[in-house]
């Protein structure tokens, strides 16, 4: 890793608080530095100099410790993500990146509208990718947030390795308060596993290059089992005596379409009887809605482990596709 050139000497009073909040003297830093040296051949002195410029961010600790928001209904979730502004933005993003989206479809089998929708849900098409330095976020959570310190310290490890692999200054890359990065909000481990240099310029840039972001999102979904040109989910009609026991709040495909039909769930769309499926119920704007989720629905939940998230991505994708067409 290249030597960090910035100096921390002679700080003005304005920056004194930030300088005093660095991680050079943290009790657990040396163990982390030793690990990075042993497992990844990082230079110990260079890492120590780097962490002298890494700042603890109390706002991040406050944000992650804040009580979770109330559980949203599907109707409330729709109001957040299925908006005209986000649909219009998706159409514009599609038109501006038509060739890359088509190539991603041909390469990975993921429909353009699904890629566009995920980027729209995550960052409004790159409009809001996060303002924290990734290294500050991951160090703060890795060293000073005990409930999940092991997870975030591992992500910090991945981040330093990816910065070296991509020849980037680790102090320059920004993301969310949890360390998620770029158009598609990849954590560092996901970046290293799934991000691709889709335009072939030698740098996998998910921060400012929509081509790489498009290819990376498509690759992520494909690697998790996306089925090309297959349905995601279908609305279901229910019999008067449908079996409530098959409804799930989980994410596993525990049934076959044929068994759900026998349990009183009739898909509105034509689905193959042998397909793996799940049945779930959502509280929509007009009352209860019953749905049958398929493999591609489950794949979307690998991006965010939530039925509501997957439904938002699906419905936003459909609205964007209709508006684009």
Short description:
With 325 residues, the chain is α+β, with helices and mostly antiparallel strands.
Apparent shape: globular
Percentage of residues in helical conformation: 40-55%
| Strand percentage | 5-15%
How many DSSP E strands? 7
The ordered H/E elements are HHHHHHHHEHHEHHEEHEEEHH
Kindly name the structural category.
alpha+beta
Mind describing the biggest β-sheet? 5 strands, antiparallel
In the CATH hierarchy, the architecture of the domain at 233-311 is Orthogonal Bundle
Low-confidence stretches: 1-20
What strand line-up does the widest sheet have? Answer: 4-6-7-3-5
How many individual helices?
A: 15
CATH C-level category of the domain at 233-311:
Mainly Alpha
The averaged pLDDT comes out at 92
What is the CA–CA distance across the termini? 48 Å
Rounded Rg: 22 Å
What is the CATH topology descriptor of the domain at 233-311?
Lysozyme
What does this structure look like?
The protein has helices at residues 13-20, 29-40, 44-51, 58-65, 74-81, 84-96, 98-108, 112-123, 134-144, 149-165, 188-194, 210-223, 257-262, 295-303, 307-324, and strands at residues 132-133, 174-175, 233-238, 255-256, 265-267, 276-284, 287-293. With 325 residues, it is α+β, with helices and mostly antiparallel strands. Among the domains are: 11-55, no CATH class; 233-311, Lysozyme (Orthogonal Bundle), CATH 1.10.530. A five-stranded antiparallel β-sheet has the order 4-6-7-3-5. The protein has a two-stranded antiparallel ribbon with strand order 1-2. Strand 6 (276-284) and strand 7 (287-293) form a beta hairpin. The chain is globular. Mean pLDDT is 92; it is low at 1-20.
């Amino acid at each position: 890793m290249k030597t960090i050139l910035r100096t921390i000497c002679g700080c003005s009073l304005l920056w004194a608080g930030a300088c005093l909040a660095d991680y050079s003297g943290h009790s657990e830093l040396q163990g982390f530095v030793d690990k990075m040296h042993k497992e990844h051949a990082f230079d110990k002195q260079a890492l120590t100099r780097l962490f002298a410029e890494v700042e603890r961010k109390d706002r991040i600790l406050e944000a992650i410790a804040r009580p979770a928001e109330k559980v949203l209904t599907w109707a409330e979730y729709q109001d957040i993500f299925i908006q005209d502004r986000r649909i219009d933005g998706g159409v514009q993003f599609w038109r501006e990146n038509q060739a890359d989206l088509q190539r991603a479809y041909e390469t990975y089998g993921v429909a353009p509208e699904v890629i566009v929708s995920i980027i729209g849900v995550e960052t409004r098409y790159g409009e809001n990718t996060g303002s924290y330095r990734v290294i500050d976020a991951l160090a703060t959570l890795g060293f000073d947030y005990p409930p999940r310190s092991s997870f975030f310290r591992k992500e910090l490890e991945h981040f330093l390795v990816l910065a070296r692999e991509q020849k980037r200054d680790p102090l320059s890359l920004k993301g969310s308060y949890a360390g998620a990065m770029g158009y598609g909000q990849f954590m560092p481990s996901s970046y290293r596993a799934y991000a691709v240099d889709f335009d072939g310029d030698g740098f996998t840039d998910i921060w400012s290059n929509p081509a790489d972001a498009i290819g990376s999102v498509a690759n992520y979904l494909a690697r998790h089992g996306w089925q090309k040109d297959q349905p995601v989910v279908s609305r279901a009609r229910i019999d008067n005596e449908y079996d409530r026991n098959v409804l799930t709040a989980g994410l596993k495909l525990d049934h076959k379409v044929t068994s759900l039909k026998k349990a009183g769930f009739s898909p509105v769309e034509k689905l193959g009887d042998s397909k793996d499926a799940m049945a779930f119920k959502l509280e929509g704007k007009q009352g209860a809605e019953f749905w049958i989720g398929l493999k591609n629905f489950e794949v979307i939940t690998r991006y965010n482990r939530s039925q509501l998230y997957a439904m938002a991505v699906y419905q936003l994708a459909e609205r964007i596709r209709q508006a684009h067409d």
